[in-house]
């Protein structure tokens, strides 16, 4: 990865995140910063649920290295995404990508989700 872009917040969209899930290079992790109930109803496949206020305590050691972290929220301009991104930077993350459309855009595009199917149907 290019060290000139360390500490810069990037943005991505549903189509690009979907492509990255199929071709995971460079390495990345998807962090879902929505409330746990929302996460359990449906999330981007493989995403980890991390509450923004507990980010420092929840951040695994390997995520603070040179791995891209894609931060997912509820929808466009979800303030939790920016709060989490800034917290990640403070805790040593180098490559942070904000998924600007959030789960709203993901579901609108018709991409698959993981989660509790019984809750999603309710």
Gist of the model:
The chain is an alpha/beta fold and 122 residues long.
Structural class based on helices, strands and sheet pairing: alpha/beta
In the CATH hierarchy, the architecture is 3-Layer(aba) Sandwich
Order of helices and strands: EHEHEHEHEHH
Strand order of the largest sheet: 1-5-4-2-3
CATH homology-level superfamily: Rhodanese-like domain
| Content of β-strand | 15-25%
Name of the CATH first level: Alpha Beta
Total strand segments = 5
Question: How would you describe this protein?
Answer:
It is globular, with a radius of gyration of 14 Å. The protein has 122 residues and is an alpha/beta fold. The protein has one domain (3-121): Oxidized Rhodanese, domain 1. It has helices at residues 14-22, 36-41, 55-58, 79-90, 102-108, 117-121; strands at residues 8-12, 28-32, 48-49, 68-72, 95-99. Strands 1-5-4-2-3 form a 5-stranded parallel beta sheet. It contains 6 helices and 5 strands. Strand 2, helix 2 and strand 3 (48-49) form a beta-alpha-beta unit.
